[in-house]
Design a protein that fits this description.
By secondary structure, the chain is α/β, with parallel strands linked by helices. The protein contains 16 helices and 10 strands. α3 packs across α13, α5 packs parallel to α13 and α14 runs parallel beside α16. It is globular and about 60 Å long.
Length: about 425
Amino acid sequence: MEGATEIRGRDPWPEDDLLSKRMKKALESRKSRGLTRQLTLQQSSCLEKDFGSNDYLGLARSEMLRRTASKILERYQCVNGSTGSRLVTGNSQLAEDVEELAAKFHKSESAILFNSGFNANQGLLGCVASKDDAILWDERCHASAREGTRVTNSSHVKSFRHNDLDSLHQELTAALEKVVGAVIIVVESVYSMDGDLVPLKRLFKRIEFGGRRVSVVIDEAHTVGLYGGNGSGYVCERGFENHPNLLARVVSLGKAFGCHGGFVLGSRLLRDYLLNYARPLIFSSALPKTSLATILGAYEAMDSTEIREKRARVFTLSEFLRSEVDASPVLRSLVMTPKGSTNICSLAVVGAELCVWVADQLALKGFRVMAVRPPTVSPGTERIRITVHSYNVARSIRELVRCLEEIILTASDGGVSPSVAKL
């Protein structure tokens, strides 16, 4: 084609234009603070040494789930793609069956499917509040919830200190006085970076003075599949699924369910409202039938003997990890996760470069863990995040703890690069 050679040889983003200068400066700033993010290809390391992924029950790798999903696709005679958004041509009997099963499974009046847990939080919180309403969110809530509050019509959006009911009470009192509408409180059943549980019973008790003006949204991303007997979640385990102040639960399928997508669980009225006002739902192509079949298969597997045994194993191994860490004079003082919590254990390794260095050293020994840095967490709260899965083994947990001890001691003794801050 005429002129093609000239176009291919041209730099599409010359570094002297204003946008390129701004982007380059922003990236250089992050790089200087050890905060640059980049994609990596995970090496084929031993699965039992994976302490970094969200695949808690191994379903993302399950051959059983793959076979089940294939049979579901044949049963529904599916096409490959969704062909459009749910409100145009992308709805299907399979999508509606998935939502009906999810609602029943989580003991909810209804469920509506979004393309991801992020979209579910963003769509719900972005449209449910009016200018007369307030939104209060725990300061450790996921970025998806914060993104929803950025586009909300609410005129009063405030955070409260993490799991601090006194702080919540103070902010709630102020909000009830300032706005004439409702107050929506946003929490997570398990906080992904700390691994601690929301004090659900005390929370509902503490907000009683607000009456029906107060509604609660609970993100259950890290509890569905693990809690609630059959994996229905922490809210069901504690028996609060019908609490009058519970507006909605958000379910992410990318963790224990080994799939992709997210549900908002709530009343039929809420479902109808989101169908009309949640922009990520209205203006996105629906999930393809392959995803829907995998979701349906995962739900069907949740009450099986195999998954029940894997679920129990996650908690057994999580307790073992915690006992090994507590027995370590080097590591026990670094633990950020309260005792008796979850399959997530975070160890404080302050300093972004040091945190990455520790994770890199573990990777050299075959372990996959997460180095969590700003902006995911606040500066000074960097940590190594360890997640336990059903396919981990006690031997690898012992080895992980011993390796961590050696690496932390090396860093403390100054045996790291001068550019990396010491503990």
